[in-house]
């Protein structure tokens, strides 16, 4: 069993961890009682194994970053149920597909990571319509037929990584994330960009085992920047704060109710 760090910027840690019996047995004791109960409730044992390895790897990585034992890591929930670290010292994200788990942790950026296992799609046209805008569909249509499926997975991982970075996941349509494309290239560049609702993202395609696609999305201003912004807001006098307070939701959006949307790899 091995934990293999993927290549990532210096202020980020990204781990790839295999989902196998040995790793699952080693990581299970790192989970909380509630997490072990959740793993046991999955109908498919493979789903329970992915959850166990993903949560155990996350606790191990966060514990190393914080200098504490993995079981002592206190996890909570942010908006839309996104797992978060109590106290907000680090931002992190986890993805899993088939027999692999990826974890990303940063002190300085908002991070989202998506991992997909490439396989034949029974409803490739439906997935393309869900995931891509008109510009991206035209790009896919211009590729050789053999390359379209791989390119679609690259687009999907880029889009879902962005949505996971901001915490909404597939509550938002993947087609709303605009990925920068080069019409002359049959694949996304290793370093790319995307945007969602006017917010920019940096994309990085990370190396991973054959048959998978792994994409990291980041935004500047991670936990450290958010704490500084919060401290600056607290320095504002009550009168100034009241005058500056926006009416209603400052994002201008409300979370959508959502049923599960189909992921291209059909993962759990």
Automatic annotation (TrEMBL):
Residue span, 4'-phosphopantetheinyl transferase N-terminal domain: 28-105
Ranges where the 4'-phosphopantetheinyl transferase domain occurs: 110-187
The keyword Transferase belongs to this UniProt entry's keyword annotation: yes
Keywords assigned: Transferase
Keyword presence, Transferase: yes
Compositionally biased region (Low complexity): 239-250, 257-268
InterPro entries in the record: 4-PPantetheinyl_Trfase_dom (IPR008278), 4-PPantetheinyl_Trfase_dom_sf (IPR037143), AASDHPPT_N (IPR055066), P-Pant_transferase_sf (IPR050559)
Domain of life: Bacteria
Pfam family, one: AASDHPPT_N
Region Disordered, annotated ranges: 214-268
Compositional bias per record (Basic and acidic residues), positions renumbered to this chain: 225-237
Record-level Gene Ontology MF annotations: transferase activity
UniProt record similarity statement: Belongs to the P-Pant transferase superfamily. Gsp/Sfp/HetI/AcpT family.
Protein's name in the database: 4'-phosphopantetheinyl transferase superfamily protein
């Amino acid at each position: 069993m091995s934990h293999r760090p993927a290549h990532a910027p210096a202020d980020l840690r990204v781990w790839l961890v295999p989902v196998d019996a040995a790793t699952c047995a080693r990581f299970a004791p790192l989970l909380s009682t509630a997490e072990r109960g959740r793993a046991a409730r999955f109908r498919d044992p493979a789903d329970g194994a992915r959850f166990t390895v993903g949560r155990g790897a996350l606790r191990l990585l966060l514990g190393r970053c914080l200098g504490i034992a993995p079981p002592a890591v206190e996890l909570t929930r942010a908006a839309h149920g996104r797992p978060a670290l109590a106290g907000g010292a680090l931002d992190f994200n986890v993805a899993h597909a088939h027999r692999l788990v990826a974890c990303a942790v940063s002190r300085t950026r908002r991070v989202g990571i998506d991992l997909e296992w490439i396989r034949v799609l029974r409803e490739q046209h439906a997935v393309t319509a869900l995931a891509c805008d008109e510009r991206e569909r035209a790009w896919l249509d211009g590729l050789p037929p053999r390359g379209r499926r791989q390119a679609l997975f690259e687009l999907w991982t880029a889009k879902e990584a962005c949505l996971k970075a901001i915490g909404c996941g597939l509550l938002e349509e993947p087609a709303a994330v605009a990925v920068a494309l080069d019409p002359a290239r049959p694949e996304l560049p290793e370093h790319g960009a995307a945007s969602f609702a006017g917010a920019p993202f940096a994309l990085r395609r990370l190396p991973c085992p054959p048959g998978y696609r792994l994409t990291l999305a980041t935004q500047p201003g991670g936990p450290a920047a958010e704490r500084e912004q919060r401290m600056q807001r607290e320095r504002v006098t009550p009168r100034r704060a009241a005058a500056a307070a926006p009416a209603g939701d400052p994002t201008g959006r409300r979370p959508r109710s959502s049923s599960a949307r189909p992921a291209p790899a059909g993962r759990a």
